[in-house]
């Protein structure tokens, strides 16, 4: 019986097919599985036929219906795995198939595809242009070095014509996948040794040597798990074709697979990476791995907001497909975990209050004690010094380091601050309320003395880690016994939007030697990435562990599309009208309303957007109301609520000088210079987060003066 495998190109075509054609594919594939290879070749219904003038002699088409053909790579070496490559309308199937050639990469041993015809046609012309070019992109790498990294003769000839990165990117669609990736890394400045270690050695099967012959098609398919899915059981086919396909569940990039499925880490491990690099995907696969290692272990998967926790729960259920395993995972926010813990271990929990209510209490305290500071100063002192260092007494506060605060406080002043802290706590206690971070501090204390067999977990997986406060980290540290695989942490310091400053090492979470970075963005086009990254140019970003600086070096996307649009209007009415016109265009291009998001710094801006959309007959819904995917309507969200989400099209509106940064959230430099800088950076990161939610199209607009973070887009060079 033949074996079946599906290439990633197949899923891209299959996903958008109409139902009857999908049913035709299912039927054809089921038949494929039942026939012997000899019967398969003879079957009139499937009509497996070779492709005239195909550059790859193994190319075949099969009949799905009168109009549609499947394109298949058939083994000619005695092996029995057939690879389904694409489903295309009849006449296009032959041209698609004729130009493509599948080969085995000499270094990674994976199956790759190239557009061999286009490469042959383009290379001679480019060679002429390259002869006159002042410099070539890969001049410093010898042929030998490139060959060791898997570059073959045809690609090498093409590589020698490449002048710059844009030309390499333009070539990308035509080149074999692993070879293209090697070239991209070299173009980013990584050394051949780094590329060999991170890409080639990662993928090459154990024991393969450069001299070894390439092996069968079946062996190459087995070596290409990041792009090809092999059907291993007869009943698996229906399951695979019936579930909505999500590439992330199956085709992990080797760099993702290596991190998620590493058998064990000796202690806390950390994965960072820019937006859309699949950190959440890796976190979900790590949970799957941890659950599969023991039948009884309990895992906590945690993230920042309830909305994100709900999305994680849904995706994890899809990935696991096993209710018993799912029952061993708790998916929740750290605040909810802290709350539950305090309730379980100490009985009642006072009612937690939000940031706005907390500020009001501080304002009253400031007034009553006639303090020389603003309530904002006290909120920050309480958050960044007292709660961050878990200071519990006046004496401790007198001694504690205030590193990171830009204003000095003498002993007398510290005493006055502590008076305020006592009054603040007393006010909350009298009202039966508490702040979320106070609940966390209490939960961490209680867990420290609790039986972790009952109240703790065997493994913790933490997503969106960049925004956790030290008090929240203490809860996590206390909820798991220190040791192998205790904490698996994913996050991106460039997306820090809640002003948390953390030194993980000090909190007993050392990730030294167990820290990795993801670099390929799977969400957005390169054009959106380059644009969004310009928002952060020149900013110093502290790394996740609080031990140094983080950077986005090598961060890139394999996808391409239109450049983002940034536009200023004279009035806010004109801006909203411009937005409505843009949303209309997206809808006319067959984007569904729920694939479009409009976000702004403030809810009020979104209120007028909602009115205008509604006047134009376009439905809209608030993201904060957690509409399910089945709910129609353009999504509306504040920039903060966009964290962790993604949409085909995103419009960021109201990006004015007054709103981004929002002056009220910025400490004046004369009050505290360090806090001022950190506030400005936080607002900058917020714009970065909002714009990196877009997959295909990004539209940014303002009325009057644009945000200073948009200098680069609004006419002046980036600052
Ligand atoms: N190996 C993969 N194959 C296909 N798609 C992938 C892969 N890994 C991630 N993706 C997709 O890329 C998008 C971004 O992934 P994910 O949300 O995990 O990134 P992230 O790094 O957590 O992003 P952010 O930090 O911006 O929230 C998602 O649509 C995800 O399904």
Automatic annotation (TrEMBL):
<feature type="domain" description="UvrD-like helicase ATP-binding">
    <location>
        <begin position="252"/>
        <end position="525"/>
    </location>
</feature>
<dbReference type="GO" id="GO:0004386">
    <property type="term" value="F:helicase activity"/>
</dbReference>
<dbReference type="Pfam" id="PF00580">
    <property type="entry name" value="UvrD-helicase"/>
</dbReference>
<dbReference type="InterPro" id="IPR014017">
    <property type="entry name" value="DNA_helicase_UvrD-like_C"/>
</dbReference>
<dbReference type="Pfam" id="PF13361">
    <property type="entry name" value="UvrD_C"/>
</dbReference>
<keyword id="KW-0347">Helicase</keyword>
<keyword id="KW-0067">ATP-binding</keyword>
<keyword id="KW-0413">Isomerase</keyword>
<dbReference type="InterPro" id="IPR014016">
    <property type="entry name" value="UvrD-like_ATP-bd"/>
</dbReference>
<protein>
    <recommendedName>
        <fullName>DNA 3'-5' helicase</fullName>
        <ecNumber>5.6.2.4</ecNumber>
    </recommendedName>
</protein>
<feature type="binding site">
    <location>
        <begin position="273"/>
        <end position="280"/>
    </location>
    <ligand>
        <name>ATP</name>
    </ligand>
</feature>
<dbReference type="InterPro" id="IPR000212">
    <property type="entry name" value="DNA_helicase_UvrD/REP"/>
</dbReference>
<keyword id="KW-0378">Hydrolase</keyword>
<keyword id="KW-0547">Nucleotide-binding</keyword>
<dbReference type="InterPro" id="IPR027417">
    <property type="entry name" value="P-loop_NTPase"/>
</dbReference>
């Amino acid at each position: 019986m033949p074996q079946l495998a599906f290439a990633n190109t197949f899923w891209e075509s299959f996903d958008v097919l109409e139902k009857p054609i999908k049913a035709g594919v299912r039927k054809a594939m089921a038949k494929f599985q039942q026939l012997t290879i000899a019967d398969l070749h003879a079957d009139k219904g499937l009509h497996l036929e070779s492709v005239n003038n195909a550059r790859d002699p193994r190319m075949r088409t099969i009949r799905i219906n009168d109009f549609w053909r499947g394109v298949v790579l058939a083994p000619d070496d005695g092996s029995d795995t057939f690879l389904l490559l694409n489903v295309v309308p009849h006449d296009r199937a032959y041209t698609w198939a004729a130009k493509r050639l599948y080969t085995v990469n000499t270094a990674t041993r994976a199956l790759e595809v190239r557009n061999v015809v286009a490469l042959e046609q383009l290379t001679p012309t480019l060679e002429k242009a390259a002869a006159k070019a002042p410099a070539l992109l890969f001049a410093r790498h010898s042929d030998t070095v490139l060959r060791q990294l898997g570059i073959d003769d045809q690609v090498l000839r093409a590589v020698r014509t490449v002048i710059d990165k844009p030309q390499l990117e333009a070539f990308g669609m035509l080149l074999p996948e692993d070879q293209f990736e090697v070239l991209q890394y070299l173009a980013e400045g990584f050394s051949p040794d780094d590329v060999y270690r991170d890409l080639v050695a990662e993928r090459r099967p154990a024991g393969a040597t450069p001299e070894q012959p390439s092996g069968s098609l079946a062996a190459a398919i087995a070596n290409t798990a990041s792009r090809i899915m092999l059907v291993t059981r007869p009943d698996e086919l229906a399951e695979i074709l019936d579930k909505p396909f999500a590439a992330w569940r199956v085709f992990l990039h080797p760099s993702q697979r290596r991190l998620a499925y590493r058998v064990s880490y000796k202690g806390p491990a950390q994965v960072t990476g820019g937006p859309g690099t699949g950190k959440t995907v890796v976190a979900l696969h790590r949970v799957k791995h941890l659950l599969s290692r023991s039948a009884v272990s309990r895992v906590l998967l945690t993230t920042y907001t309830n909305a994100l926790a709900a999305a994680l729960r849904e995706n994890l259920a899809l990935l696991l497909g096993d209710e018993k395993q799912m029952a061993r995972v708790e998916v929740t926010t750290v605040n909810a975990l802290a709350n539950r813990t305090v309730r379980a271990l100490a009985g009642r929990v006072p009612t937690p209050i939000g940031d706005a209510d907390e500020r009001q209490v501080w304002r009253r305290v400031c007034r009553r004690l006639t303090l020389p500071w603003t309530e904002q100063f006290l909120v920050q002192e309480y958050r960044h010094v007292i709660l961050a260092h878990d200071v519990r007494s006046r004496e401790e506060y007198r001694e504690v380091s205030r590193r990171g605060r830009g204003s000095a406080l003498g002993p007398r002043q510290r005493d006055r601050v502590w008076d305020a802290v006592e009054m603040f706590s007393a006010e909350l206690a009298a009202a039966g309320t508490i702040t979320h971070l106070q609940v966390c501090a209490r939960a961490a204390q209680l867990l420290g003395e609790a039986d972790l067999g009952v109240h703790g977990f065997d493994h913790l997986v933490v997503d969106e880690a960049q925004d956790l406060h030290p008090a929240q980290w203490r809860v996590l540290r206390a909820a798991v016994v220190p040791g192998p695989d205790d904490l698996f942490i994913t996050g991106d310091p460039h997306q820090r939007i809640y002003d948390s400053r953390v030194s993980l090492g000090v909190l007993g979470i050392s990730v030294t030697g167990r820290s990795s970075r993801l670099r390929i963005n799977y969400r957005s086009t390169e054009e959106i990435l380059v644009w969004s990254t310009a928002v952060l140019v020149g900013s110093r970003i502290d790394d996740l562990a609080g031990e140094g600086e983080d950077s986005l070096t090598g961060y890139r996307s394999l996808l391409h599309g239109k450049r983002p649009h940034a536009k200023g209007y004279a009035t806010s009415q004109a801006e909203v009208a411009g937005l409505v016109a843009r949303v209309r265009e997206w809808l006319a291009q067959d984007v569904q309303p729920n694939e479009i998001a409009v976000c702004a710094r403030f809810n009020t801006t979104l209120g007028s957007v909602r009115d205008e959309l509604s006047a134009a007959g376009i439905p809209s819904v608030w993201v904060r109301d957690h509409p399910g995917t089945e709910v129609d309507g353009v999504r509306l969200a504040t920039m903060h609520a966009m964290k962790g989400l993604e949409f085909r099209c995103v419009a960021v509106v109201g990006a004015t000088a007054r709103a981004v940064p929002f002056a009220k959230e910025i400490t004046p430099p004369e009050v505290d210079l360090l806090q001022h800088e950190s506030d400005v950076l936080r607002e900058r990161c917020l714009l970065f987060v909002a714009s990196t939610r877009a997959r295909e199209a990004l539209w940014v607009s303002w009325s009057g003066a644009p945000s200073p973070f948009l200098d680069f887009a609004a006419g002046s060079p980036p600052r």
